[in-house]
Amino acid sequence: MLRLVLCALALLSLAPTLHAEMAAERCHLDVPCTLGERSYHVMEPDGWDGEAPLVVLMHFHGWARTGVHAQNSDRIGASTRRRSVLLVTPNGRRKTWDFWRAGSEDVGFADRVLADVLARYPVDAQQIYVSGYSYGAAMAWRYACESGDDLAALLAVAGSIDQRETCAEAPPVVRHVHGLSDTVMDFPMGPGGDSTYPVALWRARLGCAAGLGQGNWQLRSFLTFTRTSWACAKGAVTLDLHPGGHFVPHGWIGRQLDELMGRAPSYP
Questions:
Q1: Which residues span the membrane (predicted)?
Q2: What is the pTM of this model?
Q3: What is the pLDDT of residue 17?
Q4: CATH 1.10.1220 is the classification of domain 2-173+203-210+248-260
């Protein structure tokens, strides 16, 4: 489905006035864009001139939240605003997501969200990222599993699907962060205490070689990440672990965007 969306984008790029007219409808920030009975939110980056192609981050919110929460978060929305990234935040039915099994209607909904965004804004089709937190991270995994071939990357925070699943599609880059003390979306420890198991599905799907420890890194003095990366036949996988629980780490989303966009990493 996303491939068809990108074809539509190519056609729409020939008609910039259409982008301008649709964006002028001003569904943005806490005013939702409606798609039938469902909706999503969009937040433009600081200083955007209204014409330059935008990098897109579609972020799935956590349980009992809405897309507005991610916009207002200094760990998500603030990071996209500062990095010329358009933040797109779909709203889940009853503030949750259907990610448990293949064939989720929420995958189709997310495809329609992207199609609507591409009609409203000039988008860099090579830089469409998907992310999520908690249940939203599991939804981001599900979306990447079923509609991920044309994504640039998956950025998941503290949530995933069953590592034994087989995915029809996959983005070329996967980055996942999880707390070893997480008891909400429990840390998925592998057989024999394998702490790299949280990305086993993508390592298998992308044909990854042995992992390489990248050492520890920090954005804030109170939280240390331990990074392992895999070079893969079809892309790359990165896993950041920390000793904490269930939360979006300060600056993690922004750091991943910086690295993937070829920018000097910064905080916040």
A1: none
A2: 0.92
A3: 46
A4: no
